[in-house]
Each structure stands twice: as structure tokens, then as C-alpha cells.
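Sanity check

After download, print the first record. It should look like this:
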Amino acid sequence: MFKRTRYQFGWLRRKSRKRGPDVWVWVYRSTTPVGKRKENSVIVGSVQQYPAEADAWKAAEGLRLSINNPNPAEEITFGAVIDRYIREAIPKRRVTQSRYRSWLKNHIKPHWGNVSLAKVKPLAVEKWIETLNLAPRSRGHVRSMMHVLFNWAMRWELIPFQINPMNLVHIKGSSKREREPRTLTIEEFRRFIEHVSEPFRTMCIVTACLGLRVSETLGLKWGDFDWDDLRVKIQRSWVAGVEDDVKTLYSKKWMPVDPILAELLLQHKARSATGAMDTDWVFVNSETGKPYWPGRLQEHHLVPAGKAAKIGRIGWHTFRHTYSTLLRAFGVDVKVQQELLRHADIRTTMNIYTQAVPQAMREAHGKVVEMLLPMRKAG
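Expected C-alpha cells:
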């Protein structure tokens, strides 16, 4: 006769420490390979985090899932799934993790945390998301986060393998931009950089001529450049004052560097970083020894320059959009566009499956640089 595995709740203890506040400890029993019962304990959190024992019990539910897995969905709260996801599966990249934690903490957990997993239904989720005071695209992100959580619930065998119920949730306008991304014409870009002082002028030019994300520009080190073959490898990003990985594995690759752009960078090095080592940052704040904060640079340099040039408010991502627009205007092969923009999925560019030729990448990159920086090449 089939015997259902007993659900183990364990128990909580309040434990004092030599330093710091008391902590809540969740205790449970397990069976060793030789059949003996063993007592195990896991710290749930401090009494400052969970003043009441009831709060500590809720926080421990995610831990209980790990040892009682699989478990009927009626007995599991969605909050427990969230807690386990944060503990075991949330992405390691800091900027992504910060964004996910924000959606979970500020929107999903407050509403669904105490609801059993079995009662989180598509229509109810859809109606709830419609009430959120967020832009349509942000509502779409919340829905996508719910989709991720259900995928993990299936992977952990907390619910049967099935079509993800969040596939049935439709958010109006979530795939549409509220406004078209800002791009610059060649003339506007040239007028703009006349109002930007060094080293920020060079920073804007590098970002525009390589189509980089600002975090990748700030993450550049001198050792990333191969001056003999005129190329650079994007290897890291600088986000919120911390060195981090690039957005995707596809982002980490070699990019061509046009001779005009290479000369501009070497001039920047001679001007502000003579004797710099390969491990030194290309764009470093002399006061801190670390890269700048992009938000401050945008407000103090990009926005005023945009106003002075009479082209409106300019942000860092304007340069990446401009780069993409110029590539399309030149009729560059879509696969080459994908390679230069380093999109992980070609559908972000267009659904064409051909291999980009490195020489084609170099020629396309050179066209952009020559248009943005009209200088004659030596020889």
C-alpha cells in the first residue's frame, strides 16, 4: 500500500549570540544512510528581521519546501516559492537580481505571499496586474516574473508539469513602448559633442561608435584592447558602483575598433592616464580611483549638452539606439547588426540565421565611426 510521506514542519528556537541580536533557528530531523535520526538546524534570520515568532515561521516556509519536496500545492504558499527562488535560483548578476528583488518585494509577495500556490490563477493574476500603478512594460515584467516562479515550482515538483498558467495572462500594451526611443542624426551628434568636455566627450564618442551600454563603457580596462589587431573585448560592466558581469554571455566578445577611434582613445590615455596598466579603468574618476556614476554624468554633462545643442534631453542609451539606426540606414546585413550590437537572440534584431563575416563587421563599424567623426584616415 502506498504510504504518503509525512510533511515535516520542524520547530523554531530562539538562539542568543555573543555578538549581535538573537536569531531564529529552524530545526528539523532527517534520517542518515544507516537509518539513524539526525537533528539539523538552519538560521532563519534575526529577531530584528522577524520580531514575532509567526513572522519567523512564514520565513521558514521556504526552507521546509526543500526537505518536504514534493508537496501538494494546496499546502504551499506562493511566498514560500518566492523565498526558495531568492535563496536558490535568483540570477547572480547584481543589476538583474536587484530588479527581480524589487518586483518580488514591492509587488508580488505583498499580494500573493500568503496565498496557496494552487490558488494563484491566471485570471486573478491578470486582474491584479491591471490594478498596479505601473507602466504597461513594467506590468509585463511583473507577469514575466510570475511566469519564472511557476517554472521553478514545476522544476521543484511542487506542481505537476503543465503549460505554465502565466501563459494565459495577457497584459495590454506590455510589448509596446510608450514612446519611440530617442536617436540622433549625424549632424545632431556632432553638434552635441561640441558641448561636452573631456573626458566625457571621449566617453560619449566611444559609447556611440561601439554601440555599447553605458555600464560596458564604464567597465572598460586598458587591457581589454588589442591595439595590433584593432579590437576590444567587452568583458565586464560597472553598475551602481560595483564591477559586474556583462548582460549576457553573448555580450562578452571581441569588437572591431576603427583606426580613428583607436587614435582618439590613445589620445585620451596620453592626456589623462599616462603609464596606466592593463588592469586600470579607461574612464576613471580621479577622486575615487573608480569609474564614474552614469546617472550623475547624464544629469551634469549629457542633459546640459543636449539643451545647449538644442536637441532636447539626451540619455546614455540614446547612443546605442543611434548606433543601431545608423547600421540599418547603411543597409548592413541583419546578422552583422546582431553581432555588432551583441544581442543574445537574433529575434531582437531580426529572425535571420546566417553567419556574420568579421570583415563585414569591421566595415560596418568603420562606416559609423567615419560618419560620427569625419576625419581622414592616415595613408
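If your output differs, re-run the checksum step. Summary of this record's structure: Residues 1-6, 348-357 have pLDDT under 50 and may be disordered.
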